[in-house]
Amino acid sequence: MLIAGTTSDAGKSVVTAGICRWLVRRGVRVAPFKAQNMSLNSFVTADGAEIGRAQAMQAAAARVEPSALMNPVLLKPGGDRTSQVVLMGRPVGELSARGFHDQRRAMVFDRVLECLAELRRTHDAVICEGAGSPAEINLRRSDIVNMGLARAARLPVVVVGDIDRGGVFASLFGTTALLSAGDQELMAGYLINKFRGDVRLLEPGLESLRGLTGRPVLGVLPHRDGLGIDEEDGLRLSTRGTVREANTAPPAGSQVLRVAVIAVPLMSNFTDVDALAAEPGVVVRFCDRAEEIADADLVVVPGTRGTVRALRRLRERGLAEALARRAAEGRPILGVCGGFQVLGERVEDEVESRAGTVEGLGLLPVRIRFDREKTLARPTGRALGEPVTGYEIHHGVADVRGGEPFPGGCRVGAVWGTHWHGMLECDGFRRAFLRRVAADAGRDFVPAPDTRFAALREEQLDRLGDLIEEHADTDALWRLIEKGPPVGLPFVPPGAP
Questions:
Q1: Which of 81, 106, 172, 192 has a CA between 20 and 30 Å from the CA of residue 165?
Q2: Residues 288 and 406 both lie in one domain
Q3: Are 117 and 253 part of one and the same domain?
Q4: pTM over the 0.90 mark
Q5: Residue among 130, 176, 163 at smallest CA distance from 495
Q6: Do 402 and 336 share a structural domain?
Q7: pLDDT tens-place values along the chain, 497 residues long
């Protein structure tokens, strides 16, 4: 089955994860699949392949090991018009958006169908996620992830609409009406997402939509806070005033710990800070102005696919000076991956930006040289007396020339840098790190001794499964998975009402 959406951010990823969790709880061997993902949030599988983090999250929902089969094509934007193309977990080059759309069927569609066939062979069910909207008619001819995939594999399609944005009935009808007759044959029904209020108020609209399209609404999913896990795209993140509060329990000490995450350009793997937000008493805020980090106890410079561009932005907005003042005052800073690179002495980049040698912020004794080969790894180590694991996704090679050893990087005073993503998900290390940060910041903050990030993530995935089980027509969903698209669905011409 293919889960499509009226727009990006309609809820395709979480609905796909929820269906995977519902099915696996019924004893079904299920796998997620997204033919093509555009995202700067990625993950490294056990065999060293890079895939979208949303597919890794969906694999966790399905209780299976993530694999490149689940996301054969990953596009990582490097600007407004170019992306790095990652095929079967390995980067194969940079292409313009137009160039990729012109070439992608010839380049990858056979491989996409082979991956889907392999997952179908080894699992009872495969829940596929679309991208953007299936009604992007300007891209239909080269589509491999929405109706192009559904037509090739004869997949029933369920379209998700976000009612919180408004206009959901128009969006669902318009999406259907813009499709060709052949595509409409596969569109089996709709899911309405993020509803607030009494569902009985929707019933006249649900009946009218079915009358207009001949297709049922298969569920109305209520709005739930805290379920936007592993978002795909940091480019859509609203930076000013954005707070992530995964855990609202009171802090163990008398004070909270305030974390400011600098929203650098082309921000990647910003989900690294989710584990901080899961700690009681830790408030995480994304910001992009120097004055917004002045009262922070910890400033995080996250990953980016534009290290040189991020350096330019930090200098333009006065953030470089603010970070230098923090370092001189012994106030904590953590740089992760690209954020680690900008804290170093210099960056030699003939690969990503082709800017040559650019001076870094000089807060860590590190020199970065970009290599054409990408490092993709799942390292392990120890830090602050605790075991640490992580994953690496970077072209920059670090020449660490001093400071204290730290996994994937180094530390000088209260400035920490690492190429490792995911370290903060290690509970023992995270608590030790936060204790050190609180001491350096002069805060009476004590990490909770029993916060387990993996368990919190499991609870979130179970909540997604509950949403599907309690608010969707699971019998109808199961019939679609088992029997394929229904027959005899009417054609909906544009302007039918």
A1: 81
A2: yes
A3: no
A4: yes
A5: 176
A6: yes
A7: 999 999 998 999 999 999 999 999 999 999 999 999 999 999 999 999 999 999 999 999 999 999 999 999 999 998 767 889 999 999 998 877 666 666 666 679 999 999 999 999 999 999 999 999 999 999 899 899 999 999 999 999 999 999 998 999 999 999 999 999 999 999 999 999 999 999 999 999 999 999 999 999 999 999 987 666 666 554 344 333 344 444 556 666 678 999 999 999 999 998 999 999 999 999 999 999 999 999 999 999 999 999 999 999 999 999 999 999 999 999 999 999 999 999 999 999 999 889 999 999 999 999 999 999 999 999 999 999 999 999 999 999 999 999 999 999 999 999 999 999 999 999 999 999 999 999 999 999 999 999 999 999 999 999 999 999 999 999 999 999 999 999 999 999 987 66
For residue 242, is it within any domain? no
Q: Is 337 a catalytic residue?
A: yes
The answer to whether 21 and 464 are in contact (CB under 8 A) is yes
Report the distance separating Cα 99 and Cα 103, nearest Å.
6
Q: Are residues 445 and 470 in the same domain?
A: no
User: Both tokens of residue 209?
Assistant: 């939509």
Assigned token pair, 244 = 């992530």
Instruction: Find the domain containing 26 and state its range.
Output: 2-228+458-483
Q: How far from the centroid of its chain's Cα atoms is residue 179's Cα?
A: 28
Q: What is the CATH number of the domain that holds 413?
A: 3.40.50.880
User: Do 446 and 477 share a domain, yes or no?
Assistant: no
Question: Are residue 471 and residue 420 in the same domain, yes or no?
Answer: no
Residues 107 and 197 in one domain: yes
- Choose the catalytic residue: 123, 394, 395, 421: 421
∠ at Cα 215 (211, 219), nearest 5°? Answer: 110
Same domain, 314 and 254: yes
3-state secondary structure at position 446: coil
- Let me know how long the chain is: 497
Q: Which of 20, 128, 287, 337 is catalytic?
A: 337
Is residue 421 annotated as a catalytic residue, yes or no? yes
